[in-house]
From TrEMBL:
Residues 74-191 form the AAA+ ATPase domain. Keywords: ATP-binding, Nucleotide-binding. Coiled coil: none annotated. This is Putative ATPase. Belongs to the AAA ATPase family. RarA/MGS1/WRNIP1 subfamily. Residues 1-30 are annotated as: Disordered.
Amino acid sequence: MSQEPNLFSDGPDQETPGPGFAGSSGASSGRALDPLAVRMRPRTLDEVVGQEHLTFAGSPLNQLVEASGGDRAGASSVILWGPPGVGKTTLAHVISHAPGRTFVELSAITAGVKDVRQVIESARREREMHGRTTVLFLDEIHRFSKAQQDALLPAVENRLVVLVAATTENPSFSVISPLLSRSLMLTLRPLDDEAVGNLLDRAVESDRGLAGQFTLTEEARNFIVRIAGADARRSLTVLEAAAGIAAAQSEEAGDEPIEITESACAEASSETVLRYDKNGDQHYDVVSAFIKSIRGSDVDAALHYLARMIVAGEDPRFIARRVVISAAEDIGMADPQALPIAVAASTAVQNIGMPEGRIPLAEAVTYLALAPKSNASYRALDAAIADVKNGLAGEVPMHLRDAHYPGAKELGHGEGYKYSHDYPHGVADQEYLPESLRGKRYYSPTGNGMERSMAERLENLRRLLRP
């Protein structure tokens, strides 16, 4: 197993002058050809931004970084969970800088059990022969199968290796419990605008970055912060591309810095990368916010989350199903037209597909968000289901039983049944519930929308049914 080179080892080649553009002082340096995001990657915890809740003095992460190879007390394995571009790989490399460490990097996309076992065997030799601790950085651990994760357990448990695993998916669902219990789970937060802005400022001035050869206008800075979507890597990628465009378009000569404008940044970037995993937390978080916004009657928020799902490529049939459920669950009898409109939108999506399907979806979501709300119908059903499950079903009253088959009348089925249409208002005064549930009330209409008028009708009906 060949060990991945540690791009952040201490050494003279670490300093990279210039941004690496043609004509810059760093153009001839091999390190200058590395992407800006790689060159600007923090080497110490002090350089890490946006994760202060993990990097403070005395924190588990800080202890892990400061522990020497022989200090096994501080060598706990960690699982870094967070969205892309917030510093998971960076923290792994910072951890590798501790004295007496051998750093090995694997990707769960390409590595298998054989690769893991080779790393463990090499780690055993490193510890026995040189007293060095091996740090294994495993990127995208959620892609490892249960068998592959099981192979790591013995080495993690006896601290033969310090596992630093990174994942964008909730480890509670993607990492096996024995591995979770042997590791610290550290949650990285999305970077706020200030953190991304600080990274941009540092990259413009640093000798490892653009080395002061460029200036970034306030408008350009704000544009990159907005377009980056809390992703540090993306922000630096856009900055580097914009610097290249600005350099190519610049007519300036001499030592004056080249100005990077908002237009250059716009040319350098495509559409904003939307953080949305159709099989992970973002899928559930966004659709949850979508439904709750409809329920909360905030049409603007509901349309925002609808747009996020559409842009992210969510299955429109899934969205349509959620809209139908929302109509029945949250609007109900307060506006009985909500459900037909939602069903019509669902049918339209299936018939015409996307992108045109977004139009009936938008109409349905707007209608549902603005409609009066009531969950009285489904709450009534849930209460009835609870009674049935608790044994409160009771016998069907004799007068309501089927009397059409031979011998039914001899059993008393249908005897005394009152035909509703023979009575005033089409309502006969008879009991319909089982005897054990006589007088039970499940449905309690709200005062919202059409249910306001239904409440009075319901009381009149109940008086006629049970005088």
